[in-house]
């Protein structure tokens, strides 16, 4: 399953900039909802464990998922995650890194069509692993931004692009808008320089880099802070409100608020 290898590579790219951090760096506040670097790793590790539990111990996953849903209604998911994952700093980094790589090894040989339970509808293990890659890449932005580092991108970002396309209808539905009949055509430049084209002409168009499109659908950048160009009302509305992840409607970051570099 190619997505497992892509997830492993994404973990490695984030680990590259996390490994040199000292004890105080883990408490640095990012530009994402005031989350600290520790908070990001807690979140990533918690949901990596949940995805793996859905495969290896479905009954344990269901019990933990029910607890998480109740926590959202009472004290909030962030508090629940922090109570579930107690390690911090260097120890958390090592736990996250080791578990993620072991998980990728286990999942790589799976039938991509195998179904597993999730907090929402069941999904294929291919979709579950794509979600883990997406989360690692998206939340990794917060770390790269606050540390002033540049990410090395590759064509594995195609998995995140496809997730963004596949959640076209969801992006409109979760915002309470009527779902358009047709998806705009996309012409995106891959990190390798290859052009990726999706959809047919005649219903609007989105052009620019695959990285810019992925940043928009994961809500790590405002469309106006990317190289993405839209043509047509549906294309523009999609790029202004896109959301490729589950949960309630979330607003993209305001223009000019998420850039590479230390905000201080």
Explain this structure.
The chain contains ten helices and six strands. It is α+β, with helices and mostly antiparallel strands. It has two domains: 149 residues, dinb family like domain (Four Helix Bundle (Hemerythrin (Met), subunit A)); 84 residues. It is globular and about 50 Å long.
Task: Please supply descriptive tags for the structure shown above.
single chain; 264 residues; alpha+beta; Four Helix Bundle (Hemerythrin (Met), subunit A); 2 domains; four-stranded mixed beta sheet; two-stranded antiparallel ribbon; 10 helices; 6 strands; 52% helix; globular
Write the topology of this structure:
Layout: H1 2-18, H2 37-56, H3 58-74, H4 77-84, H5 89-107, E1 115-116, E2 123-124, H6 125-147, H7 158-166, H8 168-174, E3 185-189, E4 195-198, E5 205-209, H9 210-217, E6 229-231, H10 233-241
Parallel strand pairs: 3-5
Antiparallel strand pairs: 1-2, 3-4, 5-6
Helix pairs in contact: 1-5, 1-6, 2-3, 2-4, 2-5, 2-6, 3-4, 7-9
Which sequence of SSEs, written as H and E, runs from N to C? HHHHHEEHHHEEEHEH
How many separate domains make up the residues?
A: 2
Structural class: alpha+beta
Number of strands: 6
Strand content: 5-15%
Annotated CATH topology of the largest domain = Four Helix Bundle (Hemerythrin (Met), subunit A)
CATH architecture of the largest domain: Up-down Bundle
CATH homology superfamily name of the largest domain: dinb family like domain
**Rounded radius of gyration (Å):** 18 Å
Give the proportion of residues in helices. 40-55%
Unreliable stretches: none
Mean pLDDT: 93
Number of helices: 10
CATH secondary-structure class of the largest domain: Mainly Alpha
Give a short account of the largest sheet: 4 strands, mixed
Query: In angstroms, what separates the terminal alpha carbons?
Result: 41 Å
Tell me the strand order in the biggest sheet.
4-3-5-6
